[in-house]
Amino acid sequence: MNTTLEILVEQAKNGDKNALEDVMRGIQDLIYGLAIRMLWHPADAEDATQEILIKIITHLDGFQGESAFTPWIYRIACNHLLTIQKCPAENNVSTFEDFEKTLDNELQAIEPTSHFEAEQSLMV
Prior knowledge:
Elements: H1 3-13, H2 17-39, H3 42-58, H4 69-84, H5 88-92, H6 96-109, H7 117-123
Helix pairs in contact: 1-2, 2-3, 2-4, 3-4
């Protein structure tokens, strides 16, 4: 348990802006490390880290101190990352009809490739 971090959290909850900045500096690398492992893209991980830090700041009152601070922030980070980790296609398709239209559009955009006749018959 990191008592220094928890002391800073209590000070931040009481309105100490410097303590809040120290808390954010102390946890941002932990959150970014988790984000990069789950999202694989540095730019996405950076964006997600910022969003998670904002969630933590705005919900800091919800930390009761009954357990360590680090598991609390990891729970917030994991929930956020699991939500945004979904494939963009999952977020855009809500019905089978939408999926069919998307698939048709994608297939029409593919240019046919030329194959030798023997390869063509094998492919068929």
